[in-house]
Amino acid sequence: MKLKLGKPQIKGDKVIWIVYLVLSVLSLIFVFSSMGKVVYHTNGDITRMFIKQVGIIVGGIALTYFVHHFKYTTYKRFKNTGYGFSLFLLSITLLIGGLFGKAANRWLELPIIGQLQPSEIVKYILIVYVAAELSELKSKIKDKVEFWKLVGKIVLVCGLIVLENFSTAFIIFLACFLLLFIGGARFKYLLLIVSFGLLVVLGFAGADALGIEIGRNFTWVNRVESFLNNDPNEANQYNYAIMAIATGGTMGVGIGNTVMARFLSESHNDFIFSVILEQGGIFICILILLAYFILFYRCLLVSREAKGLFGAYAAAGISFVIIIQALINMIVATGLSPITGQTLPFLSYGGTSFLISSFAIGIILNISAESKKAIEEEQHPTTDVVEKNSEIDNTNNNEI
To answer: Is residue 263 part of a domain?
Structure first.
């Protein structure tokens, strides 16, 4: 990898760059206008929190720039190391939660860095691992033994996450499931996975009915029941989110004029989309939805044009994670689903999610850059290639 000093070298799909940067700038605007509640309840300093968010955004963009110059095929060589690290990180997180009695331990407290959410890191490591495995297996993924061996490794990682974070485990598993599908796995095996998944959900629900606590199953069932039996006159997050949307209407109340952000918990994070709708209305909602679908579409184009199966699967898998997470956040924020606690990629307040997602975007941009480089070399051979071909021709002529 060579980084030349001087003029920045922006490579890869320009549309992905634009959408990513636009969402990052919008994050600063909407996070600042929606963090009043958390500042009030924590006696925090809104200026300090905003400066921290600016630092995270700048750091994330810098990280994307660095990563998009780093050849993506390098990650394939460290797939086993990454997988092992994921198991270690998740196990340590659960162990610390058990030792210190944390009810919902998803975070690690680290010196200087502060809070770190391991599942945010692991989800992209697992996607890269599955992409690498599929690229090596190729048609062997249809083999019963090879297929279930890979599925077992996916289930192991998701199993360590699901106890404390069902929605994140669901996003990761669904993205991996889609990769298995496009990788050519047999339909009957995929159908068995769906059946197994339904049994797991029913198992958690049954355990709750019997009073058996498994992870956070009591919390999950309570959230579903609250959603299904919601009282529209009750002061709760569902109703606050709906009120925010209703208040915004078509054009919104204007940036900084939010009222519902004072009542919504995590208004700057999990429910930031509700606040965005209140301030910008349906108009800004359509624009943001369009931005995510454009990002998803361009990532799929990168996947299709990638030179090699690993790049194709990695780009597709990363795009699946981003769009699934975004859609889940929007569905929850508009009161159409039980609360899950998922952030809105590139828009919500927070460090781990934005930085890791920026890293993932950098990988896609490098896949795009490498593909374009390969195409250009095919269309316009370099001097070395031309000289090499000339030498081969001369050798053939001399032999004749």
So the answer is: yes
